[in-house]
Amino acid sequence: MLQKTNFFVYPNLTPKDSLFVIQNAVAKQSVLLIVGNCRVDYEGRASSKLDWGERLVMIKSDRSILIHRSTGYEPVNWQPPGCIIQTELVSGIDLKIRAIRSQPRETLEILFDELSLVTILNLVDKGAFSLYVSEEDIKKSIMLRPSLIEENFRCIIDEKMQPTGFIDIFGVDEEGNPVIIEIKRGTVRKEAVIQLRGYVEPLSKTNPKIRGIIAAPKLGKGIKPLLDSMNLEYKRINVKKCAEILKRSEGSKISDFFTKPKS
Amino acid sequence: MLQKTNFFVYPNLTPKDSLFVIQNAVAKQSVLLIVGNCRVDYEGRASSKLDWGERLVMIKSDRSILIHRSTGYEPVNWQPPGCIIQTELVSGIDLKIRAIRSQPRETLEILFDELSLVTILNLVDKGAFSLYVSEEDIKKSIMLRPSLIEENFRCIIDEKMQPTGFIDIFGVDEEGNPVIIEIKRGTVRKEAVIQLRGYVEPLSKTNPKIRGIIAAPKLGKGIKPLLDSMNLEYKRINVKKCAEILKRSEGSKISDFFTKPKS
């Protein structure tokens, strides 16, 4: 066993000897990396079977669990944080790790007939994670996935130019009402509300059913009553989701994602 | 350095010494686990910054890269397979790993000032992965996310009972046309087509715009022309996506996700 401040490495543990090591690491909320030959059964609202092969099983401090094969950025099986982690010896020779989630009931069972490497990590990590998405990126995300605004919202292709400035997104809702969306990348301030009202007001004279929505990650203090008083709406935008949508959209052209309004 | 058939462990490598080890492992398409104190910058269609902390960086055989913190089942940063992996020494003391994706251009930069553990895994894994989803599960998935059928498809709450049997899903499309969906968990055979026709035909007399769709993971041989001849449609269902939808829906009640048709 090698030891440094923040890790322990156990090469070639027998499944039997691994029982205490694994349970102890889980109890101490360490990160566990288990490499070995295993098969995996998952039973939940779907079910899956993974035949024998060498994989990396990761059990994190929050008792989430991930099974990684040698390729692919997604784990082949996983369970979210808060699982009950059980270990037992099967037929006296194989190690079974069970990760149980109760709501909804899901069970992930990993059976190891050989462990090559068990590593225990104690990671000190207080680093803040900050994600930045531009207004243009939020706009693209909404165009790629209009349901970020609401179900059955659709973007309309022509960017309408108003005497009061540029509208970020013009679309229609499920009922066919026109919708004007103003996007802010940060916290919504009073200026943004005034700006949106400037777009909505002249158009509301010909169509009183027009809606104005501010799409942004956060509302400033006192902005909600201001929006309400002007009959405008707020839709919280999750920037992490936008980043994922943009990342997954790969090289697609934005114009591929516009939908024309029903005629 | 510990060595077994399928792994190499390098504790406390200096960043300088790690250069060759890492580049060599990437060239040999091994799986690399790098544990150490690092900060991470991502620049792409969004951008992110992760301050200093101890994390696990995983570079897989296909040159996908994942950065895991001690909690959460999702990596804090990642790049898909096929990245260019570059390593360099910064100021003679820190290790920089850069994972570059060209289309779209995205750069993930990891700067380590200390490496606690570098592990190289050579995983032999030919195990087949099989995912099973029941017809009931596919039905639930479609109800949770009707866009699995097509954009703006909506499920209607009342399960219509027909003299010819039970309709799996009854809904309306974007144009307001009624849609009958027959779900199969496996390959679509002739019997399923006959069954669906049995549901659609009596209703088509009063509404010729009614549509019939078979939703299933796979079409049997010769089924496409049969569907065409009966004016029925096929929508391929990705069972993996269904499993994810079910998993993510957690304890939500299915009835929460029905939408009433526009009146």
Task: Please tell me about this protein's structure.
2 copies of one chain form a homodimer. With 263 residues, chain A is an alpha+beta fold. Chain A folds into 2 domains: 2-121, Protein Yojf, Chain: A; 135-257, 3-Layer(aba) Sandwich (Trna Endonuclease, Chain: A, domain 1). In chain A, 21% of the residues lie in helices and 40% in strands. Chain A has helices spanning 15-27, 135-144, 190-204, 223-229, 239-248, and strands at 2-4, 7-11, 31-43, 47-59, 65-68, 77-79, 84-90, 94-101, 106-121, 129-132, 154-155, 161-162, 165-166, 169-172, 178-183, 187-188, 211-216, 218-219, 233-236. In chain A, strands 1, 2, 3, 4, 5, 6, 7, 8 and 9 form a 9-stranded antiparallel beta sheet that branches. In chain A, strand 3 (31-43) and strand 4 form a beta hairpin. The first copy, chain A, starts with a strand and ends in a 15-residue tail after the last helix. The model of chain A is unreliable at 251-263 (pLDDT under 50). At the A-B interface, strand 2, strand 3, strand 4, strand 5 and strand 9 of A face strand 2, strand 3, strand 4, strand 5 and strand 9 of B. Strand 4 (47-59) of chain A pairs antiparallel with strand 10 (129-132) of chain B.
- Overall mean confidence score, pLDDT of chain A: 87
Question: Quaternary status of these chains?
Answer: homodimer
**Major beta sheet of chain A, specifics?**
9 strands, antiparallel
How does the overall form of chain A come out from the CA principal axes?
elongated
Q: Biggest interface and its residues per chain?
A: A-B, 79 and 80 residues
Number of helices of chain A: 5
